[in-house]
């Protein structure tokens, strides 16, 4: 099976884990701090602003907790987004308010966001679809002008920038995913970033039970009763550990080669699919933007999209659509209004395999089988 997503792990990662085992310290420790500092440098921000956590989802819940969202608050987010974003909002009692997206980029514009704002809007939570930065600079400016907190879900955008600024750092809070399907993987894991240093410190406390002093061992050097607790906020345990952080450090070093290969595959798709009638290719990145090439999507006639996906699956090629529109999920309420761009995109978009482990022969197989499937369905084949 040619998969949509697949990690690249090898001897370097195994050696890094072996070093952690040899140290006999598997939990949150020196390798975690090292990875936080390395990822902060990658983002171009301070190490104290970055926290390595156990998942991007945990980071989204942490963000809503830090903002003290609750009943009576609205949070605007694109309907084309991962379910974790809406869950993090709805779990607080706040209301997710879904905005539309551009049907080609599947990212919201500043105008889409602005049209969804309400007098109760406390935050905007945007996703960078497929690793494309989208209209993030304009959205950030809109939020600053309105005094609204901007949270960036940069799960897909670990290497994406807009005019030199890393995605995830345009707003006030940012989160990234390092799960097993992402570009940079640690198995499970994620990163959290806060612009405000005090908010970053509070996030660190909340990520480990709300404790002011996370380690009794380190407290022993400054307190004669180091085992006593100092809890000022009610937190949980979502911190990362040295095993996954060691993998992360290796993956971060390899990230440029991963992204370069993914770009090469995307460009090959662009070239080989350009003449296929009935297949629309993804829009090119604007000048000044760099992407992570997490998704490669084509858009097809909605009447045949699902059948083409089934045809490819029969031929050993797994395709999918991410993310199904959230405004149609009953759990988030009704009455979200018409979102035509979202509806158009969700009925026509199909993600093709894109990961750095694909070889040239597999890429050509995907192209050839997609071409055959489209031609067959377009001619009325069953």
UniProtKB/TrEMBL annotation:
A UniProt-annotated Pfam family: DegT_DnrJ_EryC1
GO molecular-function term, one example from the UniProt record: transaminase activity
Domain of life: Bacteria
SUPFAM superfamilies the UniProt entry points to: PLP-dependent transferases
Keywords: Aminotransferase, Pyridoxal phosphate, Transferase
Parts forming coiled coils: none
The protein's required cofactors: pyridoxal 5'-phosphate
Homology family: Belongs to the DegT/DnrJ/EryC1 family. L-glutamine:2-deoxy-scyllo-inosose/scyllo-inosose aminotransferase subfamily.
InterPro entries in alphabetical order: DegT/StrS_aminotransferase (IPR000653), PyrdxlP-dep_Trfase (IPR015424), PyrdxlP-dep_Trfase_major (IPR015421), PyrdxlP-dep_Trfase_small (IPR015422)
The protein, known as: DegT/DnrJ/EryC1/StrS family aminotransferase
CDD domains: AHBA_syn
């Amino acid at each position: 099976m040619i998969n949509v997503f697949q990690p690249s792990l090898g001897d370097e990662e195994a050696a890094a884990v072996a070093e952690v085992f040899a140290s006999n310290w598997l939990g949150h420790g020196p390798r975690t701090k090292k990875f936080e500092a390395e990822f902060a440098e990658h983002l171009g921000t301070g190490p104290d602003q970055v926290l390595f956590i156990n998942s991007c989802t945990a980071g989204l819940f942490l963000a809503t907790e830090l903002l003290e969202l609750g009943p009576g608050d609205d949070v605007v987010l694109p309907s084309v987004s991962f379910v974790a974003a809406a869950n993090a909002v709805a779990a607080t009692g706040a209301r997710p308010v879904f905005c539309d997206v551009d049907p080609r980029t599947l990212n919201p514009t500043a105008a889409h966001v602005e049209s969804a704002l309400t007098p109760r809007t406390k935050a905007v939570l945007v996703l960078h679809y497929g690793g494309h930065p989208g209209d993030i600079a304009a959205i950030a400016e809109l939020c600053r002008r309105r005094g609204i907190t901007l949270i960036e879900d940069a799960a897909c955008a670990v290497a994406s920038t807009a005019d030199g600024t890393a995605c995830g750092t345009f707003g006030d809070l940012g989160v990234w995913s390092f799960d097993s399907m992402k570009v940079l993987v640690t198995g499970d894991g994620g990163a959290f970033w806060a612009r405000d240093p005090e908010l970053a410190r509070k996030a660190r406390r909340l990520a480990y039970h709300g404790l002011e002093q996370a380690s009794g061992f380190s407290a022993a050097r400054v307190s004669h009763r180091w085992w006593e607790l100092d809890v000022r906020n009610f937190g949980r345990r979502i911190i990362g550990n040295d095993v996954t952080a060691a993998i992360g450090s290796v993956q971060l070093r390899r990230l440029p080669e991963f992204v370069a290969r993914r770009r090469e595959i995307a460009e090959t798709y662009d070239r080989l699919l350009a003449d296929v009638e009935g297949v629309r290719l993804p829009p090119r990145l604007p000048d000044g933007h760099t992407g992570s090439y997490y998704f490669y999507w084509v858009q097809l006639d909605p009447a045949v999209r699902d059948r083409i996906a089934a045809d490819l699956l029969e031929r050993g090629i797994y395709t999918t659509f991410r993310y199904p529109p959230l405004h149609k999920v009953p759990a988030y309420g009704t009455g979200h209004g018409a979102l035509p761009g979202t509806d158009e995109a969700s009925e026509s978009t199909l993600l093709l395999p894109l990961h750095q482990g694909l070889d040239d022969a597999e890429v050509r197989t995907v192209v050839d089988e997609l071409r055959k499937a489209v031609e067959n369905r377009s001619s009325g084949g069953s």
